[in-house]
Amino acid sequence: MTDVPIRDAATVVLLRDGVAGIEAWLLTRVTQMVFAAGVTVFPGGRVDGRDADLPFSGSAYTEVAGRFGCDEPMARALLGAAVRETFEETGVLLSVPAADLSELRADVEDGRLAFGDLLRSHGLSVDADGLQPWARWVTPAGETRRYDTRFFVGALPPGAEAQDVTSESSAAAWVGVGDALEQAQRGDRIMLPPTLETLASLVAHPTVASALAAAEVRSLDPVRPHIRVTDEGEVFADLPDGSSVSIPRSMLP
Fold this sequence. Notes:
Layout: E1 6-18, E2 21-29, E3 40-41, E4 44-46, H1 60-68, H2 72-90, E5 95-96, H3 105-109, H4 115-121, E6 125-126, E7 131-138, E8 146-155, E9 169-176, H5 177-186, H6 193-202, H7 208-214, E10 226-229, E11 235-238, E12 244-247
Protein backbone atom coordinates (compact mmCIF):
# COMPACT_ATOMS: atom_id res chain seq x y z
CA MET A 1 0.00 0.00 0.00
CA THR A 2 1.40 3.40 -1.00
CA ASP A 3 2.08 5.72 1.92
CA VAL A 4 -0.13 8.78 1.29
CA PRO A 5 0.91 11.98 3.09
CA ILE A 6 -1.58 13.38 5.58
CA ARG A 7 -2.45 17.00 4.87
CA ASP A 8 -3.83 19.53 7.34
CA ALA A 9 -7.38 20.72 6.63
CA ALA A 10 -10.15 22.72 8.27
CA THR A 11 -13.93 22.42 8.08
CA VAL A 12 -16.60 24.83 9.28
CA VAL A 13 -20.03 23.71 10.44
CA LEU A 14 -21.86 26.93 9.67
CA LEU A 15 -25.03 27.08 11.76
CA ARG A 16 -28.16 29.17 12.06
CA ASP A 17 -31.34 28.94 14.15
CA GLY A 18 -34.30 27.61 12.17
CA VAL A 19 -38.00 27.28 12.91
CA ALA A 20 -37.61 23.60 13.85
CA GLY A 21 -34.13 23.79 15.39
CA ILE A 22 -30.61 24.48 14.25
CA GLU A 23 -29.70 24.23 10.59
CA ALA A 24 -26.33 23.58 8.94
CA TRP A 25 -25.10 24.70 5.54
CA LEU A 26 -24.45 21.54 3.53
CA LEU A 27 -22.82 21.14 0.13
CA THR A 28 -22.90 18.17 -2.23
CA ARG A 29 -19.55 17.79 -3.95
CA VAL A 30 -19.53 17.50 -7.73
CA THR A 31 -19.00 14.00 -9.10
CA GLN A 32 -15.77 15.03 -10.82
CA MET A 33 -13.94 15.55 -7.52
CA VAL A 34 -11.06 13.17 -6.78
CA PHE A 35 -11.92 12.95 -3.08
CA ALA A 36 -15.46 12.30 -1.76
CA ALA A 37 -17.21 12.89 -5.08
CA GLY A 38 -20.99 13.23 -4.77
CA VAL A 39 -20.79 13.35 -0.99
CA THR A 40 -22.55 15.86 1.27
CA VAL A 41 -20.05 17.85 3.32
CA PHE A 42 -19.56 21.07 5.26
CA PRO A 43 -17.53 23.96 3.80
CA GLY A 44 -13.81 23.39 4.18
CA GLY A 45 -10.58 22.35 2.58
CA ARG A 46 -6.83 22.00 2.78
CA VAL A 47 -4.66 24.49 4.66
CA ASP A 48 -2.77 26.88 2.38
CA GLY A 49 0.74 28.07 3.22
CA ARG A 50 -0.48 31.67 3.42
CA ASP A 51 -3.36 31.03 5.85
CA ALA A 52 -1.19 31.54 8.94
CA ASP A 53 -0.19 35.01 7.77
CA LEU A 54 -3.71 36.43 7.44
CA PRO A 55 -4.58 39.42 9.65
CA PHE A 56 -6.19 38.19 12.89
CA SER A 57 -8.49 39.83 15.41
CA GLY A 58 -7.59 39.06 19.02
CA SER A 59 -5.60 36.06 20.18
CA ALA A 60 -8.19 33.26 20.12
CA TYR A 61 -5.73 31.19 18.11
CA THR A 62 -3.76 30.71 21.35
CA GLU A 63 -6.67 28.79 22.89
CA VAL A 64 -7.23 26.90 19.64
CA ALA A 65 -3.57 25.85 19.69
CA GLY A 66 -3.95 24.50 23.21
CA ARG A 67 -7.14 22.62 22.46
CA PHE A 68 -5.86 20.99 19.27
CA GLY A 69 -2.39 20.40 20.70
CA CYS A 70 -0.56 22.33 17.99
CA ASP A 71 1.64 25.40 17.90
CA GLU A 72 0.23 28.89 17.37
CA PRO A 73 1.26 29.20 13.70
CA MET A 74 -0.65 26.00 12.94
CA ALA A 75 -3.66 27.24 14.90
CA ARG A 76 -3.59 30.46 12.88
CA ALA A 77 -3.32 28.45 9.67
CA LEU A 78 -6.28 26.26 10.62
CA LEU A 79 -8.47 29.22 11.53
CA GLY A 80 -7.35 31.10 8.44
CA ALA A 81 -8.14 28.14 6.20
CA ALA A 82 -11.53 27.74 7.88
CA VAL A 83 -12.49 31.37 7.23
CA ARG A 84 -11.03 31.42 3.71
CA GLU A 85 -12.76 28.19 2.65
CA THR A 86 -16.07 29.37 4.10
CA PHE A 87 -15.80 32.54 2.05
CA GLU A 88 -14.82 30.68 -1.12
CA GLU A 89 -17.61 28.11 -0.81
CA THR A 90 -20.48 30.20 0.61
CA GLY A 91 -19.64 33.89 0.17
CA VAL A 92 -19.95 34.33 3.96
CA LEU A 93 -17.06 36.32 5.41
CA LEU A 94 -16.24 35.61 9.06
CA SER A 95 -14.38 38.85 9.68
CA VAL A 96 -13.94 41.73 12.11
CA PRO A 97 -15.59 44.06 11.45
CA ALA A 98 -18.40 42.26 9.62
CA ALA A 99 -18.46 42.85 5.88
CA ASP A 100 -20.17 41.61 2.72
CA LEU A 101 -17.59 41.11 -0.01
CA SER A 102 -19.37 38.23 -1.69
CA GLU A 103 -19.02 39.92 -5.08
CA LEU A 104 -15.26 39.18 -4.84
CA ARG A 105 -15.68 35.56 -3.76
CA ALA A 106 -15.06 34.08 -7.22
CA ASP A 107 -11.83 36.08 -7.57
CA VAL A 108 -10.52 34.48 -4.38
CA GLU A 109 -11.68 30.98 -5.29
CA ASP A 110 -10.11 31.20 -8.76
CA GLY A 111 -6.83 32.61 -7.42
CA ARG A 112 -7.11 36.03 -9.04
CA LEU A 113 -7.14 37.71 -5.63
CA ALA A 114 -5.29 36.53 -2.53
CA PHE A 115 -7.57 36.24 0.48
CA GLY A 116 -5.08 38.09 2.67
CA ASP A 117 -4.95 40.98 0.20
CA LEU A 118 -8.75 41.10 0.21
CA LEU A 119 -8.87 41.40 3.99
CA ARG A 120 -6.08 43.96 4.28
CA SER A 121 -7.39 46.21 1.52
CA HIS A 122 -10.70 46.48 3.37
CA GLY A 123 -9.25 46.80 6.88
CA LEU A 124 -10.59 43.41 7.96
CA SER A 125 -9.22 40.56 10.05
CA VAL A 126 -10.11 36.91 10.67
CA ASP A 127 -12.82 36.55 13.32
CA ALA A 128 -11.06 33.82 15.29
CA ASP A 129 -13.42 34.29 18.23
CA GLY A 130 -16.37 33.36 16.02
CA LEU A 131 -15.20 29.78 15.47
CA GLN A 132 -15.12 27.10 18.16
CA PRO A 133 -13.19 23.80 17.86
CA TRP A 134 -15.58 20.85 17.67
CA ALA A 135 -13.80 17.68 16.48
CA ARG A 136 -10.79 16.24 14.71
CA TRP A 137 -10.85 13.43 12.15
CA VAL A 138 -8.02 11.71 10.30
CA THR A 139 -8.74 10.02 6.95
CA PRO A 140 -8.19 6.23 7.16
CA ALA A 141 -5.16 4.59 5.60
CA GLY A 142 -5.80 3.30 2.09
CA GLU A 143 -7.54 6.41 0.76
CA THR A 144 -6.03 8.14 -2.26
CA ARG A 145 -5.96 11.40 -0.27
CA ARG A 146 -5.64 11.71 3.49
CA TYR A 147 -6.39 14.69 5.73
CA ASP A 148 -6.04 15.63 9.37
CA THR A 149 -9.18 17.75 9.51
CA ARG A 150 -10.08 20.03 12.39
CA PHE A 151 -13.78 20.82 12.63
CA PHE A 152 -15.03 24.19 13.84
CA VAL A 153 -18.58 25.35 14.57
CA GLY A 154 -19.65 28.91 13.92
CA ALA A 155 -22.82 30.98 13.68
CA LEU A 156 -23.94 32.65 10.48
CA PRO A 157 -23.15 36.35 11.06
CA PRO A 158 -26.18 38.67 11.36
CA GLY A 159 -27.26 39.91 7.95
CA ALA A 160 -25.05 37.44 6.06
CA GLU A 161 -26.44 35.07 3.45
CA ALA A 162 -24.84 31.80 2.43
CA GLN A 163 -24.93 31.21 -1.31
CA ASP A 164 -24.80 28.16 -3.57
CA VAL A 165 -21.86 29.47 -5.57
CA THR A 166 -18.74 27.32 -5.37
CA SER A 167 -17.59 25.39 -8.42
CA GLU A 168 -16.85 22.38 -6.20
CA SER A 169 -20.48 21.64 -5.31
CA SER A 170 -23.50 20.60 -7.35
CA ALA A 171 -25.97 21.77 -4.69
CA ALA A 172 -25.91 23.64 -1.39
CA ALA A 173 -28.58 24.65 1.11
CA TRP A 174 -29.54 25.11 4.75
CA VAL A 175 -30.77 21.80 6.15
CA GLY A 176 -32.10 21.02 9.60
CA VAL A 177 -29.58 18.90 11.47
CA GLY A 178 -32.14 16.20 12.23
CA ASP A 179 -33.52 16.30 8.69
CA ALA A 180 -30.04 15.80 7.24
CA LEU A 181 -29.52 12.71 9.39
CA GLU A 182 -32.86 11.28 8.29
CA GLN A 183 -32.03 11.94 4.64
CA ALA A 184 -28.75 10.07 5.08
CA GLN A 185 -30.52 7.14 6.73
CA ARG A 186 -32.96 6.94 3.79
CA GLY A 187 -30.10 7.04 1.32
CA ASP A 188 -31.08 10.43 -0.06
CA ARG A 189 -27.71 11.87 0.92
CA ILE A 190 -24.30 10.23 0.91
CA MET A 191 -22.29 11.21 3.97
CA LEU A 192 -18.99 10.00 5.33
CA PRO A 193 -18.59 9.27 9.06
CA PRO A 194 -17.17 12.70 10.07
CA THR A 195 -20.22 14.50 8.68
CA LEU A 196 -22.69 11.99 10.10
CA GLU A 197 -21.11 11.97 13.53
CA THR A 198 -20.83 15.75 13.62
CA LEU A 199 -24.50 16.19 12.77
CA ALA A 200 -25.44 13.57 15.36
CA SER A 201 -23.45 15.44 18.00
CA LEU A 202 -25.38 18.63 17.21
CA VAL A 203 -28.92 17.30 17.00
CA ALA A 204 -29.60 17.58 20.75
CA HIS A 205 -28.87 21.31 20.83
CA PRO A 206 -31.99 23.47 20.48
CA THR A 207 -30.11 26.63 19.50
CA VAL A 208 -26.84 27.71 17.93
CA ALA A 209 -25.88 29.38 21.21
CA SER A 210 -26.29 26.03 22.99
CA ALA A 211 -24.03 24.31 20.49
CA LEU A 212 -21.34 26.97 20.70
CA ALA A 213 -21.35 26.78 24.49
CA ALA A 214 -20.99 22.99 24.35
CA ALA A 215 -17.89 23.31 22.15
CA GLU A 216 -15.82 24.30 25.18
CA VAL A 217 -16.00 20.80 26.68
CA ARG A 218 -15.78 18.73 23.52
CA SER A 219 -13.09 16.08 23.26
CA LEU A 220 -10.69 16.92 20.45
CA ASP A 221 -8.79 13.65 20.44
CA PRO A 222 -8.20 12.65 16.81
CA VAL A 223 -10.72 10.12 15.51
CA ARG A 224 -9.05 7.56 13.28
CA PRO A 225 -11.63 5.26 11.65
CA HIS A 226 -10.69 1.80 10.49
CA ILE A 227 -12.26 0.62 7.24
CA ARG A 228 -13.69 -2.92 7.35
CA VAL A 229 -15.18 -4.89 4.45
CA THR A 230 -17.38 -7.86 5.36
CA ASP A 231 -17.52 -11.16 3.51
CA GLU A 232 -20.78 -9.95 2.00
CA GLY A 233 -19.06 -6.89 0.57
CA GLU A 234 -20.52 -4.35 3.02
CA VAL A 235 -18.19 -1.53 4.05
CA PHE A 236 -18.02 -0.07 7.55
CA ALA A 237 -15.94 2.53 9.31
CA ASP A 238 -15.17 1.23 12.79
CA LEU A 239 -14.80 4.10 15.26
CA PRO A 240 -12.73 4.23 18.46
CA ASP A 241 -15.84 4.14 20.67
CA GLY A 242 -16.79 0.71 19.31
CA SER A 243 -19.53 1.93 16.98
CA SER A 244 -19.58 1.42 13.22
CA VAL A 245 -20.87 3.54 10.36
CA SER A 246 -21.90 2.07 7.01
CA ILE A 247 -20.11 3.50 3.97
CA PRO A 248 -21.18 3.14 0.33
CA ARG A 249 -18.82 0.78 -1.45
CA SER A 250 -18.40 3.41 -4.17
CA MET A 251 -16.43 5.47 -1.65
CA LEU A 252 -13.60 2.94 -1.58
CA PRO A 253 -10.52 3.89 -3.65
